Structure formats: structure tokens, C-alpha cells
Amino acid sequence: MSEILTAAACRATSTSVRGPSATKVRTLYESRFVDRYDVGANVWERFACEPALAAFDRCLRSLPNRPLDVLDLGCGTGRNLRRLATAGIDVSTYTAVDSSVRMLERARRNHPYSRARFVHGDATEEARVASGADLVLLTWVLSHQPDPARLLAAARRALSPEGRLLVLALTKSSQLAGRAHGWRFRRTLHANPIDPRILNSHTPTFVHVSCSGLITMAEFSATQSRMGEPHRSPRTPTPARLPCPVGVSRTAS
Asked: Please, what is the Cα angle at 137 between 133 and 140, to 5 degrees?
């Protein structure tokens, strides 16, 4: 079984996960949530996220029908890799970044693919040194960031000229129910719903808002374009081609 490398080993520079918010989140997930994360996520996705995830999957199916280099920032237990396979995405390379070693270990065990690489590091710093990604994924990670706008900008700069950035985020809601749920996330998960203007400032090509304004799914291109439904022809899902055991990479703590 491959070791988890450090991000420093990947690029010969040292990176640490910075800020008290990041430390709290990492400690919380590693001490309480790693072993039951997927069970909780299944419940969350079924009862709160189905409309947003349906929009997310439509965007995945509209991606170009060719091998794609994928960068997953804040990958958790690797659930996005399963969504890519279900959507029939042909993954050329998959690089997953998370600040929790234990979450990465679970992701590696869940998805032992030879084209996957798991990196322990800060999502923003890893996005800053990345380039040429055909698809960048930011799912449920912006609300854990001390500077979500900086991560979003770095993720977009990591795209190839024809690349796409897909975001699922907790967003501040003007509705009472959305604000109540947002308060619970802040108290229990150190997740601060972000200002939706952060997303709008990057001119998304597609936006879907659900769950009383608490959940926003957005798609971005490498270059700005107007908002609207994804304009590309949907692809027919086919089995993803993601073979055998994998190497994991990790960053210095």
C-alpha cells in the first residue's frame, strides 16, 4: 500500500494548514466524524441536497466526453469520485486534497484507483500551485475556509482554458428556515455559510439555489460568461474507467 506523501514532497516546498478555523475543523472531523462521516453524508444528501445534487450531476454529464484531469479540493472521504464514476466521467488523473490525514486514509480505502492521488494539505495553497485542470470540485469546503473568496479564486485559476469549476456550498440565507439551519451548522460543524456574493462575483455560468437558500450549486468556466443553464449537450453516462490500487500523497503538518 502506498504511503501518504506530503505536499512538500510533491513540490519541494512546505505548506501548512493555517488559521484557527482550519485547525478546529480538522480536529473536529478527525476526532468525531471520520468513522461515521459517510453515514451522515448519506442522510444529508437524501433529505436536504437532492435538488442541488441533481443540478451538480447534470453539470457533470455535460462535460466533454474525453479523459479529464480532475482536482478535488476538500475531498473528505472521496465521495466525489463515486459521483464521477456514476456520471460516466473518463478520469485521466484524480488529485484529491484534504487537511485531514484520517479522511484521506478513508478516501484511499474507499476508492483504490491507480489514477488517483491523495494530498494532505491546505486547499487554497494546493489550488495556487495547480494548473491545467479540466475539472475542479469544491463541495462543502468553502464554509470551512477562513478566506473562501481566496480559495474560489485560486480554484478557478487552476483550470485549463476549457476547464470547469463545480461548487456546492452552504450560503447565507435571507429566509428564516435557512438562517436557522445555518446557525446549527456554525455551532456543530464550524461551518460558516458564505455570502452568496462571493460566488456571484465570479460570474457563474449556472446557479441553483435550494433548501431555503442555504445550499447553492454553481458552475464556473475558466473565463467569465453569463449566467444560465449549462449550454452544452448532455452526455450519456457510461461506466467510468478508473482502474486498481492507488498512491496517496500527504503534506507536512
From this structure: 160
Q: What is the pLDDT of residue 28?
A: 54
CA 31 to chain centroid, in Å, comes to 21
User: Looking at this protein, which amino acid is placed at residue 42?
Assistant: N
CA torsion through residues 140, 144, 150, 151, sign: negative
Read off the C-alpha cell for 243. 482502474
Percent of the chain scoring above 70 in pLDDT = 64
Q: pTM for this structure?
A: 0.77
Of the listed ranges 45-54, 114-123, 129-138, 211-220, the least confidently predicted one is 45-54
Three cell numbers written together for 122: 491546505
Ranges of each domain in the chain: 7-248
C-alpha to C-alpha distances, 232 to 48, 64, 65, 165, nearest whole angstrom: 27, 9, 11, 15
- Residue 38 CA to chain centroid, in angstroms? 15
Classify domain 7-248 by CATH number: 3.40.50.150
**Which amino acid is located at 192 in the chain?**
N
Which among 2, 25, 144, 171 has a CA at the least distance from the CA of 73?
144
Residue 42 pLDDT exceeds 80: no
